[in-house]
């Protein structure tokens, strides 16, 4: 049985890495628990009237372009390149 694989002794770096991974895992569990269990701050919550009306707080529209509008510009360019061939 002496011919087995030798495992080198644990170095200082190995110990630091070992305990650092434990600390990181505990920190992640605490952070996830805080997101799940802690209530929102009052200033972050949306007023009830605006939620019932279906409008967003701030009264604005969503300003990003729709996917159809973005894709329609690409289609036109593709047709022009086919005509040039």
UniProtKB/TrEMBL annotation:
The chain crosses the membrane at residues 16-38. It is found in: Membrane. GO terms for cellular component: membrane. Residues 42-85 are annotated as: Disordered. It holds the Pfam family UPF0239. Its main location: membrane. Keywords: Membrane, Transmembrane, Transmembrane helix. Residues 74-85 have a biased composition (Basic residues). It is a single-pass membrane protein. It comes from the Eukaryota. Belongs to the UPF0239 family. This is Protein MANBAL-like. It comes from Branchiostoma belcheri (Amphioxus).
